[in-house]
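=== Structural record ===
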Amino acid sequence: MAIDFFIAKCQTENIRDKEFGICDDEDENEKTPAYVDSAQPEKWVAVVKNMSEKSINFTAVDNCVEIMREDGTPDFRCDAMLTNEDNIVFVELKEQMAGWITHAVDEQLQTTIDNFKTNHDISKYRHKRAFVCNKKYPNFRVNYKGKMDAFYKKNHIRLNLIREIVFK
């Protein structure tokens, strides 16, 4: 069954703010999707800087876009996507100190990207990036360069382990 990553109920379109955040409330029972916010920076897990102020579309993926395994159970997926005519950015949000990179990259981002490529034409985007944004650990250590290089080789998508997502 085809997966529509651009389902209207999961999107916030035409964001032109010079800076905004992506939030994901800690709500294991409610399972609400990630969302954009421009008024409460203390809640932002990822910070988006829109230098060009061109329109950006936000899509909540986790808890909104249905990605199922063959057995009918929900598959791994990242929290959100940001898109415009030139860019696609896959975003995984974290708020933890240890053990977050491998699961975020190898399962959540990778599964989402694989499903996206199966259902949509990713080649139409000039810039393809993936971000793991951790509010408690905003900058990555250089020893993840090998993981970043392997991710690029496999997906042709740049992996960033940093909290700030910049659109130039």
About this structure: The beta strands are 11-15, 19-23, 35-37, 46-50, 56-60, 80-83, 87-94, 127-134, 158-160, 164-167. The radius of gyration is 15 Å. The mean pLDDT is 93.
